[in-house]
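During the no-cost extension, the postdoctoral fellow (Dr. R.K.) reprocessed legacy sequence entries with the updated structure-token encoder. One reprocessed record is reproduced below for audit purposes.
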Amino acid sequence: MSDNTHRQWGRIIDDYDGTYIYDPKTAREKVSHSQREMNAFHTIGAEAINRLHVLGESSVDPDWNDPSSCITLSMLKSLVAYTAFPCLLLKLADPFVIRGCIKLLKSITRFGRPSPFSYEYGYLCFRILLLVLDYCLSFLSDDHERWLKNAVKPKNQLWKEGYAPMLSNAVSELIDKYMADKNNGYYKHLITPLPWSDSYATPLIQLEDIRTLTEIIDQDRKHFLIFSRSNYSLRLSALLFIMLQVMHHTPPTTEYDPFVQGFLRVYMRNLLVAPGHPSRWGLQHDYVICVARKHESTGQRLDDEDSKLVLRAYINRLTILSNFSSLHPQATASLAAVLLQYVLPLVGDGCDGLVPTLVRVTVQCMWKDIPNNVEEPVPSDTIRACVCLFRHFKSLFESLAERNKRAPSSTFKQAVQAIFDQNITDLFGHLMFELCLGSTLMSAYNGLSLSFYQDDEVEVMVLRMATTALFGGASNADSGL
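Re-encoded structure tokens follow.
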């Protein structure tokens, strides 16, 4: 095998890969297979499901050298192809398949630690895990029969992406409804033994399995972000929902701190690419953010490559996904404030080249929420978000100025140039008019401004730009522009 291919787990995926992308534009394309191919998908796919069930039900780990039990890469490929056929659906209501997938993901290692998202095999296994999680959550709902009746209609069969996007969308809506119901008791359905077939009853999840899966994703965080970026139409709603329920019911003891901290990192990172807005989960999301603040000091230090991935994901969420994705709503200042709170501590020296762009797209996002008509009031949510973003900018530029003292570079100057290019002073004035000299905004802006004068060259540039803005504005006023 080549250095880029593993004998059992297939290609190594260290960057965004066009082969494994769930694209909503192509998800509704029909597939065409010969009868021989379809027969193979049915036979091999059904065998793969059966082996996953056996693995999940047993107490042993995967044996990659046992041909009678080993689930090969080609079997997973056939199983993924099998997901386009309605006859597979009834086989998905199986928690043992979930446990089998988790065992496989844990066994895929690289550099001595679990790294399933480094390999083609891990991509396929995780997709199957998500599909089964989605189906099992749907199976427990009152809407399942209606969804299933619609799913097996000929018009919904043999789509290129199978049933995964359709199912993930339905489950995402189901979870959103659940989150809005403050008197729900869904957690007990996750941990109570239920009859999934005539032959056995078992809980949907085992708490230790979810903690193990969280640890796997957290340890392989860099490649997980690559997977999430390439597969955002899978939403991950069921996975994050279950993790959140487990975290919410986990005793607040030091024994479980690693799980809680790992979940927080997984949750916050997924916000960078997840469809929708975090606020759709209401108080549950607010609870996660509150817990995350208490654990800020426990964050992982990222290497330069991972920091760049995180910053690019933030930039793309505010631009590409906001403007062109059918699944992502327009980015708002409120969304930027939530995401930037997570991103800023991860800005290291190695990703300086992305900082000016980060500043630029954030201010542009703020301006989009400001009404064009100066007589129209700015919504209170926008004001709060913009004040929060000014505080973030204060922290960012103070950090950049301090780093510039230690090791002078062009990054600080370029970041200052970027924020002035987006008319940050006009934005500040607009907000001050709304707030009637709000002290929080003034404090943040003063701190931001003071950071500009910690470098002589930047100070000269700022004074020049401020003068140009002042006299340019006066000239425009005199000319009636």
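Confidence is low (pLDDT under 50) at residues 473-481. The two ends are 68 Å apart (CA to CA). The remaining legacy entries will be reprocessed before the final report is submitted.
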